[in-house]
Structures are given as C-alpha cells and as structure tokens.
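Email to the structure team, subject: Glutamyl-tRNA reductase model.

Hi all, the expression group asked for a predicted structure before they design truncation constructs. Nothing fancy, just the tokens so they can compare against earlier work. One-line instruction: predict Glutamyl-tRNA reductase, return tokens.
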Amino acid sequence: MLIAVIGVNHRTAPLEVREKLSFAEWAMSDSLKKLLACPGIDGCAILSTCNRTEIYIAPVELDTGMSSVWSFLSEKSGLDISEIKNYTFCHTLYDAIRHMFRVVAGLDSMILGETQILGQVKRAYEMALEAGSTNVVLNTFFQQAITTGKRIRTETGIDQNPVSIPYAAVELARQNFGSLEGRSVLVIGAGEMSELTVVNLVSNGVSSVIVSNRSYDRAVALAEKFNGTAIKFDRLFQYMHQTDIVISSTAAQHYIIKCQEMQAVMKERAGKPMMIIDIAVPRDIDPEVRKLAGVNLYDVDHLTHVVDANLEERRQAAVSAEGIIEEELDEFMKWLSTRFVVPTITALKRKADEIKQRELYRAYNRLGDLTDRERKIIGALANSIVSQLLHDPVIKLKQYALTPEGHLYTEILQNLFNLELEGQRPQAKMASPEKKKRTNVRHHAGSSGWDQGAAAMLADGMSRE
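Reply from the structure team: attached below.
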C-alpha cells in the first residue's frame, strides 16, 4: 500500500486560498470520516495549520484515491479542481514520506526549525485516530514521523537558537537577567512587533506588563491581552523606574527617550539595572543612553546580528537533520516494502497451489487407478515445477522490495497474475487495460513520488509491444 499527500502551504498559495482549504478542529472528525468514505482511500489524516493544509492518504488505488482528494477539497472550498491544482503540491511514496519527515522537523516551516509544528502533527494524528480514519500503514508512518522530529531536535539542537526579532529579544533578556521569572516589562508602542516581543517575554516568565502608546485606546487593547496596565504617554517616565525591561517600537521620527531623561530615571532606580530593547526604525532611544551606568541598550541591529548568527546555526543543524531524515526514511521504507511484498508473495503462492491442486485432481481422475507411489511421484513433480517456477520471481521481488521501484514491481505482479490480497479492498475494474497502463505510466512519470527509472522502464516496455 502506498502513501500520498496533497497539500498547500505558505510557499504555494496566498492566504485567501489557504483559508478556503483549511479545516477547523471542531469539524475535523466529520471531515476525516467523509474523506475515508471516498473511493480508493483506505486511510487518511489531515494536517491543518495557519500556514499549511496537507491531506495524507493510504490509497487502495492511487489514481482513484488522488481524484477523491481533489474532489473532496473542491467541495470543501468551493474552488474548481483545476484552480486547486495550481496552488497545491502532490507527493507519493518516497517523496510523501520525506516531505512529512521534513515538516515535522521544522525544515519546511516559515521559520526554520520551529517547534510548534511537532505538536501540530501529533494533534493531527490524534484526531485521525479518534475519527477511526487511519490504518496500520498510516499509524506506523505518523508514529515514525513524530519520533523523527523528536530525534532531530535532540541530536541537532535545531530549535535552540532564536531566528526572529521577538525571539532574539528574549534571548538577550535571558542573557542579561539569567531568569525572566517575576520580571516586569514596559512596552512603548502598540504595534505588531512590540506585541510579538511581549508574547515571547511573557511565555518565558515575565509577570508584569505596562503598555504606553500615543493612542491610549490601543494601549488599553494591548494591555488587556496580557492582563497588564495601560498608561498615558505623558506618564511614561513616572512608570519607567519600576520596570526591568523596556520594549520600544513606535513610528516616531525622532528620539522619544533622550539621555537627560534617562539619567533622571536611573538616579531614581538607585543603580538597579535596566534593559532597553529599541526595535524601532528610526530609533526611539538616543544611543547616548547606552553610556549610562546600569543601562543595557540594544537596537534592531544588535537583534539582527543575533538572528543572523542563530539562523546560520540552524542551517548547519538542518544539514544534519536531512541526514537523519534519510536514515529514518530508509528504515520506514524497509518496513513498508516488506509489508507490501509479503501479502503479494503469499497470494501468488496460494494461487499457484490452488492451480496445482486443481490440475492434480483432474490428472488423477483421468489416469484412473494409481498406486500411492505413483501419486506421490506425480505430486512431487507438480510441487517441483511450481516451486522452481516461483523461485526466481519471489527472490527478485524480495530484492526489489528494498529499492525505490519495489512497489511498482509488486503492483505489476499483482496485475499480471490477477492476485487478490487478503485484507485489502478489491480494486476497481479497469475500463481498458491498455488505457489504464498508459494512464499509470503518465502518472508515475509525472509524480515526484514515483521512481523515474521505473516509469521509463514501463514506457519502454510499451513501446516494444
């Protein structure tokens, strides 16, 4: 059984398209059950975040399963299938598995190595389990993906170095104070960058938030998000002496905090240190403030240097992560390939044995009275012929199972001998064998998840007919 994914993310589609293709968690169970009931799908799971929607399936028949996903997305979003295909990517088998392993490791995220995606993949798997939409292949696949994500973070430390201005601000604050537990922050300006910085400071232990802004209503709105206090802009310096960390990000075209004003503040603080993070461009804080005793002033260039250095660290960690992914991919493919070929070999031997027994019965009836010795000789002859005939195909199939085109040889064998595998839904009848063969070759050659050499081999075989 194969694994396939159809998805959309922040690189392939604008927000207005991603919104239409997203799935709310409260509706996920119904969506999964509806998708599972579609033709050609034996198992499914949906990963839906603010930056991506990805549908993973274990199809009974690849083309039918993929078509079902396109139709499912079209019905859900109201978009034409052709329009959806313009914004989505499609991977099968190797590429689908590698893609998931990269996603869960944070290598496919907007912020390289981010950690939130690991929890989101876990939750997607939990919801699929609760809905009963997974099967053995998808269960093992998601479990190994989650294990791979954890292993990469443990062995490479890819998520340890901040790579955004808000995260870098937290990193500098932690370097200054050691622990941020119980610290207070004064926010000057109520823009997005200020808010993101405070979010990260609060999540790291900052307990008190004061917000000041020229528009007092906006200061109140931001303060409410953190159970903080809003103050009018003209009372800024009255509160500054109480705080440990100052975050400033306004749209002012001149310094809003000058050296003389800060001298008065620091005098009142009696030498208690203060950290000021000026992330405004143009700067809000007079750089001369940096010379005052007890003041640690950082501007956006300082934060950018931290981000650049940490991003390079993450890029180096990503190289190691890619190596781990290849190791985990090989392990999963060995498991999947073995699971894929064993039922086929069993079905082949079972069919051969049924034919042998049927033909032996007919032969014995035609030959009339036979001695036990004669029956044993004829039976041994039939066993030997069947065993020798199946020996090479079985050995070769086991060898091919560990190669990228192993699944393709297995499918060919199933089709050539019209095998019925136990526990697998019967595949839909092909309208025309020749038409089906050409369709599959085109699909395999065009899909990133199918081995190009194997597709070429099939095409070459067709050209000789």
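The chain has three domains: 4-159+313-331, 165-293, 341-463. Residues 300-367 form the longest helix (68 residues). Ping us if the truncation boundaries need rechecking.
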